[in-house]
Automatic annotation (TrEMBL):
The lineage of its organism: Bacteria, Bacillati, Actinomycetota, Actinomycetes, Micrococcales. It comes from Dermacoccus abyssi. It comes from the Bacteria. This is Roadblock/LC7 domain-containing protein.
Length: 154
């Protein structure tokens, strides 16, 4: 067993992903919530160091276009971090959310098309004005959202 595996615990079995939402908090903070069909919700807090919306959109684009079978990015929480890993299998996508704070790994499943739709819907629901007021480091990823919407036929 490697050092990282000896300290990392998976929480239950993979859950079917039902929704992804993004909530702006105080200046420079955002809560990312992943809701499962069984009622479980995982909320990850990210700081302005991360380009949260663009990172999620880029992962959705990568998996939906099959330009890669995997996508990974980091949500910085100061001082902790959460790694979001997406791995496409033949029929679906496994999302592994790993927190350095509590050393747990949470697993969700979806299809690449459904994951792209959930991310697109979650980002589209973010209030643009509030985003500009509280998230000044990264511009709203309007072009990425539009491109993903076109890909999905929205």
């Amino acid at each position: 067993m490697t050092e990282i595996n000896s300290h990392l615990r998976f929480e239950d079995v993979p859950r079917e992903l039902e929704a992804i939402s993004f909530a702006l908090d105080s200046c420079g903070w955002m809560d990312c919530s992943l809701a499962a069909s069984d009622g479980f919700t995982l909320t990850v807090r990210a700081s302005y160091v991360s380009d949260v919306l663009a990172d999620f959109l880029d992962a959705a684009w990568t998996l939906a276009t099959e330009s890669s079978r995997a996508a990974t990015f980091v949500l910085h929480g100061e001082p902790d971090a959460t790694i979001v890993g997406c791995l496409a299998t033949e029929n679906d996508v496994l999302l592994v959310i790993t927190s350095s704070e509590d050393r747990r790994a949470y697993r969700f499943t979806s299809t690449s098309g459904r994951l792209a739709r959930l991310i697109s819907d979650g980002v589209a629901a973010v209030d643009r004005g509030a985003y500009l007021d509280t998230w000044p480091t990264h511009p709203f990823p309007e072009e990425r959202l539009s491109n993903l919407g076109e890909l999905l036929g929205a």
